Amino acid sequence: PQVIYLKDYQVPEFLIEKTDLRFELQADATLVKARLQIRRNPQSLSKNSALVLQGDKDLVLCRVAVNDQVLAEQDYRRSEESLSINDVPDVFVLETVTEIYPDQNTALEGLYRSDGMYCTQCEAEGFRRITFYLDRPDVMSVFTTTIEADKAAYPVLLSNGNPVASGDADGDRHWVTWEDPFPKPAYLFALVAGDLAFIEDRYVTGSGREVTLQIFAAEKDLDKLDYAMISLKKSMRWDEEVYGREYDLDIYMIVAVDFFNMGAMENKGLNIFNTSCVLAHPETTTDAGFQRVEGVVAHEYFHNWSGNRVTCRDWFQLSLKEGFTVFRDAEFSADMNSRTVKRVEDVSLLRTAQFAEDAGPMAHPIRPASFIEISNFYTMTIYEKGAEVVRMIHTLLGAENFRKGSDLYFERHDGQAVTTDDFVQAMEDASGIDLSQFRLWYSQAGTPVIDVSDEYDASQQIYTLILKQRCPATPGQSEKAPFHIPVSVGLLGKSGQDMMLSNGETTQVLELKEAEQRFSFTEIEEKPIPSLLRSFSAPVKLHYGYQRDDLVFLMSHDSDGFNRWEAAQKLGVDILQELIGEYQAGNELVLDNRLTAAYRAVLTDLSLDQAMVSKVLTLPTEAYLSELSDIIDVDAIHAVREFVIKTLAEALSSELIAVYDRCNVSEKYAPDATSIARRALKNLALSYLMKTGKPEQLERALTQFQDADNMTDSMAALALVVHSPYAKAAEVILEQFYLRWKNEPLVVNQWLSVQASNPSKGALNTVKQLMQHESFNMRNPNKVRSLISGFSSLNPVNFHAMDGSGYRFLADQIIELNNLNPQIASRLVTPLTRWKRYPADRQGMMREELQRIMDSGELSRDVFEVVSKSLA
Ligand code: B3K
Ligand code: ZN
């Protein structure tokens, strides 16, 4: 496969001014008639007279005409991935008729049928599976789309923009024409045809325009759409208030589909959503599910400006729209719920998954320099680290300048396809702040490490922080220049108060630019305890030699909520890492009772922000402990963490029971921050109590399971029992749960996932049996993610079993999925790409499986890229 480089970018040779599409949906095939108004791009320097359109090898070309002249076979050339037409005029109309087969489309890219409805997924390069086109984001065109289909089977026919005409056709068929006035790249095209129900609402924009809002789903899911509608309206208001951005069409539609490769897609005026990111109902959806719906609805809505009105010049610029939009949706969720909780959750994800990616064979900068398959670059780095980079710009500029910068960016580039550098330039121009060194965040991969030390001069009352930065090598980048890093700090005095700093405030952003830099604070009357990297002001690993007592102190006194949690995490990490060493040496484990005391203090302090209590009392996860290890000892990490949980649970059981009882109130379910916090704390208490192994705690969990009137409490109890030694009880409630929910696929997915992630012995056999279960379907990505990734990503002890059975199983599934759905197959490889982090025996087995995939036959570009880079 060919490698594509950013440095080879050239403007398109031709532009498509207007795109007229006509889809005739038939039982076995779909006819796509395209009429394209094309003209040579005056900006192109190329003298090439041929027009080269992208088109997938499975497209059947029935007719091609230039200016109404049908071309003979010798006038054009069809290759695996393109259609070339020689000697075209400077301005002309190209017509093609193409036949495609949506029913055979298991890759779920282009046009496919999911549960009897047609839908599309075109980003990044799916449009070329629909028709021949200039399938690149810098070719923006005005689309008109007509869909014709059987009226009874497909009463609803949707595309981008506004509906402008409709009518009946012969043979019980009908048609609808849609017009989208905004020029857009083909990746934002969408089509839906099906027998769908919908809810409708309306929204009046700040300037008084009325917008119709519709959310479509299968009839049986009609009662699960209200939360998405509420979230959509909140998002529309928020974007007006915080960014001054209004919606621009008369209608905004969302459609729920069950077969979908990712979360959702921001097609202009017609978002298509994975059911898992739009359906929500208290009985079937957990609190996490509700928050996901709110966040994803917002994310896709925000793309209307950050992505659609201003789009990407080429796919190397993907973070331009994704990093910025993730930052926007994170701020939205923070404003709607608890800001600190949202930050804790995002940072936890970043530090486990993104840091691991940055340390692995697929490491890439947020603006990659090359790729084989762009689908592989919808990564934690592009999205999550990309959002952190935008957040750092926000921190360096301040809210006011940042808003000026985003206003300038949208005004300057509305209707254009631009680069990440255009974004940074707008921020620089609007604020007058120099971001030249900061731009390295876009081109250098890897997670910077900052080592901090300090000095206190009592006689001069000067406190100095010494910061040293370095960044480990990543593939293709052995040397890195120092980054421009905003390090937000505060200083705490002995009594726990924030000291006043020279900027007249209690928090100051240090701008670290050199490899080593000293920052002095004057009039510091006693040696302070520093609170470093407040709110996680940069995506870095920061080391400072805190004593355990300092961390306990910060846990209760730091005025920065994020850093109070961070102090608890650091204390947990320090203690767990020491115990892991003891475990490996075969020594008896003894828990430092400072952790127990600190947890007791948090459990019994009713004045604390309840939303944060359950976060603070959650030990660093196995995934995070793994990421922090040089060589990951899966079994030691699991055993030690379990030991600590059990020890804490036994020491604190009366406090935990009190918390459980206090939070176990019966009231109507509501997914607001306060009630979510209460359920989280209750279920956290239950999770500790279950580890005491006392039968009355099993009873407590079973009672909660039977009495629960919402999925959060029911699922929490189910997972705790299934992941406990009470195998018999688990079997009974698993069966009961399935019988109750077997007609709710999203609930069944969680049922699969709970079993796949069971750390007890025998989980792999269960997974293999479940693959034969009536509820499983290898063609449905949600099922694959729940069961197969549930095992390979959420069940480290079993996945890394010493007999290699976990690795072998995963490789078998990747080989099978490589043909069915390359994007999903390629995602499944991730745990194997981390082989270098494990001890030698496991390394060997993981590599062997990667090699077996490599040798298994013809690989998709997706799988080939990840596997070959992992073996390199
Ligand atoms: N832009 C889409 C992702 C498309 C993924 C294509 N493989 C969803 C989002 O980020 O909003
Ligand atoms: Zn996005």
Q: What does this protein structure show overall?
A:
Residues 446-544 form the Peptidase M1 alanyl aminopeptidase Ig-like fold domain. It comes from Neptunomonas concharum. This is Aminopeptidase N. The protein is an alpha+beta fold and 872 residues long. Among the domains are: 4-195, tricorn interacting facor f3 domain (Immunoglobulin-like); 310-544, Aminopeptidase N, middle-beta domain (Immunoglobulin-like). 41% of the residues lie in helices and 21% in strands. The chain contains 28 helices and 31 strands. It is globular, with a radius of gyration of 28 Å. The protein binds (3S)-3,7-diaminoheptanoic acid and zinc ion. (3S)-3,7-diaminoheptanoic acid is lined by residues 123-124, 262, 264-266, 299-300, 303, 322, 375, 378.
* Strand order within the widest beta sheet: 6-5-9-3-2-12-15-14
Secondary-structure-based class equals alpha+beta
Number of helices: 28
Radius of gyration: 28 Å
Give the overall silhouette. Answer: globular
Query: In which range does the helix fraction lie?
Result: 40-55%
In terms of quaternary structure, what is this? single chain
Mean pLDDT: 98
**Distance between the terminal alpha carbons, to the nearest Å?**
15 Å
Query: What fold name stands as the CATH topology of the domain at 310-544?
Result: Immunoglobulin-like
Low-confidence stretches: none
What is the CATH class name of the domain at 310-544?
Answer: Mainly Beta
